[in-house]
Design brief:
heterodimer, A: alpha/beta, elongated, B: about 450 residues, alpha/beta
């Protein structure tokens, strides 16, 4: 994704504002545990529970606290120290998955296939991406591949108008793979830079829907064997440990190479990203912290970890 | 959705029941596992703590540990507690008492499934409750949200309030109530925009809509895949808007359903509806006792029968169940079942309701059984003579070759199918003999086609 110049401080402030509600209860809890207290078993258990409450998952929470215990067990610690130590641990896990959405200039078009479970924010993310990319001077075309949900085409069309991008759609649904194929042909003819393909939301345990998604992925290769150049999975921050299953199955189906986590402006903590980083190592290319176009942000591991732990950078 | 949780709990319970006498330490160890299982199933931490404390008190305090089968007793306590937590009785949609038109306010986060659920509820009330329903979209923010509800209204054959561009949510709500009163609608479903529970401005708008419509029901539409945040969302909506019930969506996913327990626990509001598929008729009332049994791996035979009733003739369903229990399950029955499986929302939905099938379902997922397999099996059966279908023993190798040719399959495929029918018979017979409890222990081997 195109990174904003001079957005350093402003970016962190925005992210932190978005995550403040996220981190409030988490770090408030840490403050309550460690007010001049020894890091003993009881304190560690409470800490572990706080991390679980942040959706980091039972296993990740146990490992993080075990690591902390190794360094400082029995020592007098302050809440700030614990936060800093945990933020560092979390950042170390997240740095390897700090990703960007790099557009291949010579691809013409660079095809981005966007998939995910129903209601995670695929269409909205595509709308924001389209606006962002158009602003950066790219010729963007959108494909209304959600041929199932009522009015999904209309929704994408409105986003297309906002971004000034053409939208390829078929009036009455039909086969999304055929639509994607035609759209790619048209995009090549019109020398479009980026082709963004929206898909219907699908639960990952519906084998026939996953097969449909694979078919889209497959037919694109008939025109360009490197397509789709990016395969993004959109995750909802309010989702709990099921996000692990989602990444697992979608990755198996279409070799997902980028994650987008949306809705981080609520109270959901998105802590499952930490568990995802450990288990799959799929790069996180963007996070959504609001409904405006500027609220789709690059994912920065240290900032995310610090904001999650309520630290000022 | 609850399979993984039930899988974990079954493991804990197996350990418990294997032991004769139980010490307090045994119970504590089991409860530690229960705690982790629930947390991994996304049950919110405070809810888990309460649950475990409640079970511990009952299990250790009573004469449980000295009883004949302490393991069973503990399981019963967990089961009872689970039902209690899920709300005990099945809760109806409360529109009967209200003076028509009764307003039903649908609220929730973005992407939780409000619009789809609104349309499903509209269809459900029209068909099952014979109500005249009007739906109105109050979502002025999401692009094409109003078009979506209008399109779904056509599919559900339910009336929808015409859109006046630029009108605000409160105005739409007021107009909907007025129009419904004039045109004799019994129920008005108000589909609101998705909003964050921390967005004070939008929550205030929602409260204003509530004030002008005085809803008989205010349903929080929530995603069954929600994680620990479920408690924050549910309690914030409850505090600000005042909920009367919860509609849980994506119950057909492979989430572990912890959110259901969490939200019920923190709001005290019953779960009234569950969404179990993408089609408009894929909505069901929520039965806490059956779900609790499902979590514990006891299956939900009642739901299965009900679902079948809606799809097929009732006597047909009874005939099938009777026949299956006697062990006279033949290829005609399998053929009917294959057709019904598709109608009933796919194999997984059906399997989830059979007792002890969690294991099979996992195998199914692991084996990645193609839905096309059902088509192939149907083709095989279609290529048989009526006599062969009702008496598979007739199938010698020359007949099998003929069928393979006719259905475009192989003799091995046919043998596999026959073995499956045989195993289903064995299993059904066993089910008849053992009753539910026995079945839970015995599991359900052999429903899967041998590989």
């Amino acid at each position: 994704m195109a990174r904003e110049e001079g957005g350093g401080r402003g970016l962190f402030a925005r992210l932190k504002a978005g995550l403040r509600r996220t981190s409030n209860s988490l770090t408030g809890g840490i403050g309550a545990i460690f007010t001049g207290r020894r890091l003993d078993d009881e304190a560690l258990e409470e800490l572990e529970e706080l991390l679980i409450a942040g959706d980091l998952g039972a296993a990740t929470a146990a490992e993080l606290t075990a690591e902390l215990a190794q360094q400082r067990f029995g020592k007098e610690v302050t809440a700030a120290e614990v936060r800093r130590a945990l933020a560092d641990q979390i950042a170390d896990l997240l740095v390897p998955v700090e990703g960007t959405l790099a557009i291949e200039e010579d691809a013409k078009p660079h095809v981005i296939l966007v998939a995910g479970v129903n209601g995670t924010g695929k269409t909205t993310t595509i709308g924001k991406l389209a606006q962002r990319l158009s602003r950066d001077g790219k010729q963007v075309m959108l494909v209304a591949g959600d041929t199932f949900r009522a009015a999904a085409v209309e929704q994408l069309t409105i986003w297309g108008e906002r971004a000034g991008s053409p939208v390829v759609a078929r009036p009455d649904g039909g086969d999304p793979a055929g639509l994607a194929f035609d759209a790619l042909e048209r995009a090549r003819a019109e020398s479009i830079d980026v082709l963004l393909i929206d898909t219907a939301g699908r639960l990952q345990n519906k084998a026939h829907l996953m097969a449909e998604l694979q078919k889209i992925d497959r037919v694109l290769k008939k025109l360009d064997e490197r397509a789709p150049h990016s395969r993004l999975l959109v995750l909802d921050a309010t989702t709990g440990q099921n996000a692990l299953n989602q990444v697992d199955v979608f990755r198996e189906a279409i070799a997902v190479d980028g994650l987008v986590m949306t809705k981080l402006d609520g109270t959901a903590k998105g802590g499952v990203l930490v568990a995802l980083a450990r288990r799959f190592g799929v790069p996180v290319v963007a996070i959504g912290i609001g409904e405006g176009i500027d609220d789709l942000r690059p994912f920065e591991a240290r900032a995310f970890a610090a904001a999650l732990m309520g630290l000022d950078e | 959705m609850f399979d993984s949780l039930s899988g974990r709990l079954n493991g804990v319970f197996e350990t418990l029941t294997r032991r004769g006498a139980l010490s307090e330490a045994d119970v504590s160890a089991a409860l530690r596992d229960v705690r982790i299982a629930m947390l991994e199933a996304d049950v919110a931490l405070p809810v888990v703590k309460d649950f475990v404390a409640g079970v511990r008190e009952k299990a250790v305090g009573a004469d449980v540990l000295k009883s004949v089968a302490p393991g069973q007793q503990v399981i019963k306590i967990v089961n009872d507690h689970l039902i209690e937590m899920l709300g005990g009785e099945t809760a109806e949609i409360g529109i009967a008492a209200a003076t028509p038109p009764a307003a039903v306010l649908m609220v929730g986060l973005q992407g939780s499934g409000k619009t789809t659920t609104t349309a499903k509820l509209g269809l459900f009330l029209r068909v099952s409750h014979k109500k005249r329903v009007l739906m109105a979209s109050l979502d002025t923010s999401r692009p094409a949200a109003m078009e979506q509800l209008a399109a779904l209204a056509v599919q559900a054959e339910v009336d929808v309030l015409p859109v006046i561009p630029g009108e605000r949510a409160v105005g739409i709500a007021r107009r909907a109530m007025k129009s419904a009163a004039q045109e004799g609608h019994d129920v008005v479903l108000l589909d609101t925009a998705g909003r964050l529970h921390v967005d004070e401005e939008l929550m205030a708008e929602c409260a204003a809509v509530r004030d002008v419509t005085v809803p008989a029901e205010t349903l929080l539409v929530a995603d069954a895949l929600t994680g620990q945040d479920a408690v924050n969302v549910a309690s914030a909506f409850h505090k600000r808007i005042g909920l009367t019930g919860i509609a849980l969506t994506r119950v057909d996913g492979d989430g572990r359903g912890g959110a259901a327990l969490s939200m019920r626990a923190v709001t005290g509001c019953p779960i009234k509806l569950i969404g179990v598929g993408e089609k408009l008729d894929a909505i069901e009332p929520f039965h806490p006792d059956r779900i609790a049994s499902r979590i514990l791996g006891m299956g939900d035979v009642v739901s299965l029968v009900e679902r079948a009733q809606e799809t097929i003739e009732q006597d047909e369903a009874e005939r099938l169940v009777r026949k299956a229990k006697k062990g006279g399950f033949d290829l005609n029955d399998l053929s009917k079942q294959i057709q019904q499986v598709r109608k009933m929302g796919g194999m997984e939905g059906l399997l989830g309701m059979l007792p002890g099938v969690g294991k099979v379902k996992r195998q199914l997922a692991e084996a990645n059984v193609d839905i096309k397999m059902l088509d192939r099996q149907q083709a095989i059966i279609d290529s048989m003579t009526p006599a062969e279908r009702s008496n598979p023993k007739l199938l010698n190798s020359s007949r099998k070759r003929r069928i393979a040719g006719g259905s475009g399959t192989t003799v091995q495929d046919i043998n596999r199918l026959l073995k499956q029918v045989k195993q289903m018979n064995v299993m059904m017979k066993r089910a008849g003999k053992l009753g539910e409890k026995g079945l839970m222990r015995a599991g359900m081997p052999g429903i899967m086609p041998p590989r």
